[in-house]
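Q&A FORM
Asked by: J.P.
Topic: structure of Plasmid mobilization relaxosome protein MobC

PROVIDED:
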Amino acid sequence: MARPALSEEERRVVQVNIRLTEEESKRVSAQAEAASLTPANWIRHKVFTGRFPVTKASPIEAKLYRELHYIGNNLNQAVKLLHSGKLSPAYLTILMTLLNIKNDILKRLVG
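REPLIED BY: S.T.
REPLY: Here is the structure written out as tokens.
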């Protein structure tokens, strides 16, 4: 299913270029990522509404959440190895403790 065609008035044909320092670019990208927008759409929203777009999660929280997700995946893989007999049962207590800690951190992070 194709995207509907835009009318001539709705098409964005004028391009405005701005120069940013590396630090400014990183800040815009981080804020845009936190608001689930592209940097261009984040800037467009700020310019035309005068307000910053709603941040769904702070950039630090988003990165932390992703890292915890990766850790959780690794722990789940280790538990699967344990259940298949490829890992010593001595690790069960450690893995379960780590999974509980990860889940507790996620609960505190999400709210």
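FOLLOW-UP: The chain has two domains: 21-56, 59-110.
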